[in-house]
Write a structure and sequence with these properties.
elongated, 2 domains, 4-stranded mixed beta sheet, transmembrane helix, alpha+beta, membrane
């Protein structure tokens, strides 16, 4: 909401409120302005925003690729045999949750140039760097997209507090907002845990090569899948109540918030009486107006239309 208020004062391309859209949420952002009846339940973010659908599908592809990588780590030692893995005994570490490792050795030139020990050549560093960056980019990108879904759900939860009896604070402490939101609390603990698991999926030895461990990759896939399932549930969740959804969309917030309270006051959303000029829409039917105020407002009337 602070960003929406700042965008209204932006000198070059300010956001301007569009009158008569008091009950039109983000799913109607491109629809013409017309009186709308309140809905008992609101559409989900997945059905309201095209970007939410794209993020969900891309996340699914990311988890699928991570699952393929994990399956390859399990199947390769079983098909090639443990003894055929280069220097397998040296890399085998029972503390890595008792699963075999896929060992990728250095190039032959590295061993020929340094005898029995082997050294990193530039091309060895290049392919190992590319491999690990590719895997980490996949994990990081998938987690980041799921994080966007969680932030979207948190923004909507914050906005919907305006229709509660206590209202919503105009501004809040960022740390307290983090700790008081279960969405961001789960994000705060689950995302670092996933990166820690990724750090256990490989070991680099400058004399022998890189070992990729299957068990940590398997648990990493599970954690990322749970993270994705949580973000998908938030995207599919349909909020109850007549208050239109915004999911952090700035123009929709500007349309719905017609009165901005001072930064120290609370924001309330509700019925604000008959809509001035409703005869332009329908001369024989009463059109009411819903909006915001710094004082508590009555609940909207479900049998009326609002503009």
């Amino acid at each position: 909401m602070d960003v929406a208020a700042a965008c209204m004062d932006q000198p070059t391309r300010p956001l301007s409120p569009r009158a008569g859209r008091a009950m039109q949420g983000i799913h109607q952002r491109g629809a013409p302005t017309f009186p709308t009846s309140p809905a008992v339940r609101q559409p989900s973010a997945y059905h309201s925003h095209r970007q939410a659908r794209r993020i969900t599908w891309v996340n699914g592809i990311g988890v699928a690729l991570l699952s393929v990588y994990t399956c390859a780590l399990f199947l390769y030692p079983a098909t090639m045999g443990f003894a055929e893995s280069f220097n397998y005994r040296q890399f085998w570490n029972p503390t890595q949750w008792s699963f075999p490792a896929v060992v990728i050795p250095l190039s032959d030139e590295g061993y020929q140039s340094a005898g029995a020990v082997g050294i990193f050549l530039p091309k060895d560093f290049a392919w190992i760097f590319a491999l690990l960056c590719g895997i980490q980019s996949l994990v990081t990108f998938t987690l980041h997209l799921a994080e966007l879904c969680i932030y979207t759900a948190r923004d909507e939860t914050t906005w919907r507090k305006a229709s509660k009896q206590t209202g919503q604070k105009r501004t809040s402490n960022a740390l307290l907002a983090l700790l008081s939101s279960y969405q961001t609390a789960i994000l705060f603990f689950l995302k670092p845990f996933a990166h820690w698991l990724y750090g256990l999926t490989f070991v680099i030895d400058i004399y022998n090569g890189v070992a990729l461990y299957a068990a940590p990759a398997f648990y990493l896939t599970i954690v990322v899948s749970v993270f994705l399932a949580f973000s998908l549930a938030l995207m599919l969740w349909r909020h109850s109540g007549p208050q239109p959804t915004t999911f952090g969309h700035l123009q929709t917030l500007v349309d719905l918030i017609d009165t901005w309270p001072a930064r120290r006051d609370r924001l309330y959303w509700g019925d604000k009486g008959p809509f001035v000029g409703h005869e332009a829409y329908d001369g024989h039917a009463e059109i009411r107006h819903a909006g915001t105020h710094w004082l508590p407002l009555p609940a909207v009337q479900m049998d009326k239309r609002y503009a």
